[in-house]
Hints:
GO molecular function: 2 iron, 2 sulfur cluster binding; metal ion binding
Low-confidence stretches: none
Radius of gyration: 15 Å
Bound molecules: FE2/S2 (inorganic) cluster
Keywords: 2Fe-2S, Iron, Iron-sulfur, Metal-binding
Strand content: 5-15%
Organism: Bryocella elongata
Amino acid sequence: MSETPLPLPAAPVTITVRPNGPLRVEGHIILKDVDGKEWDLTGKPAISLCRCGLSEKRPFCDGSHGRQGWQCNVMAPGENLG
Ligand code: FES
């Protein structure tokens, strides 16, 4: 079974790995659960997705990473293109 390709967004979505924190996602975002049901992101130009697993509001970050001292700082390999 082939899936219908998604239309290309007008601008690319940018995902930034925050030091010791969430994934910051900016752009035209469609966020779905495993059943295909979407979160209402109306009016949100960006969201932060939990990367630590400690949030009470997953998949969104609620700041628990900072309160609990979670640490994970990763950098892209090679030259910084940003
Ligand atoms: S990354 Fe912020 S609560 Fe998990």
